[in-house]
What we know:
Blueprint: E1 2-7, H1 17-21, E2 27-30, H2 37-46, E3 49-51, H3 59-64, E4 68-73, E5 76-81, E6 85-86, E7 89-90, H4 92-100, E8 105-107, E9 114-119, E10 125-130, E11 141-150, E12 153-164
Parallel strand pairs: 1-2, 2-3, 5-8, 8-10
Antiparallel strand pairs: 1-11, 4-5, 6-7, 9-10, 11-12
Amino acid sequence: MTTIGLISDTHGYLDERVFEHFKDCDELWHAGDVGSVTIIEQLEAFKPTRFVFGNIDSKEIQWKLPEHQFFTLEGFNIWMTHIGGAPPNYNPAVKKKFKEHIPDIFVCGHSHILRVIRDEKMNNMLYMNPGAAGNEGFHKVKTLLKFTLDNRKMSNLEVVELGKRGAITR
């Protein structure tokens, strides 16, 4: 059993409450637009973290992080990338890759729109976008996802709201 904290689009701002919400997680996934090497360091010091870079990330971050993560966890084949699109309008590069292999779980960021949905036309693949956790962008509320994977079963899916975009709280 593995509990995951999923975050994206921090754009250089990491809300301190992320650490409280993700304290019981076994690992974290960051779906791109990290925005700062400091955020990479903070998250890696906190929990094992899988990252991908996003379109706003500097060359320094792009050298540190992959564009795609393909991995297997708890029996699930998972693909994480930043710019994925959304069902049924996936990014053309993603559509091309789906012709080779459709993962069980597809994770992306970029849109700043929280969405978790099954795509029946893609072998019932689970599409996950945690929205945006940073202060930059058009989203109104900063969001995260938390869930558990256990032997090809997902449970305890939770949406975490961190408050309004741009609001600094202590």
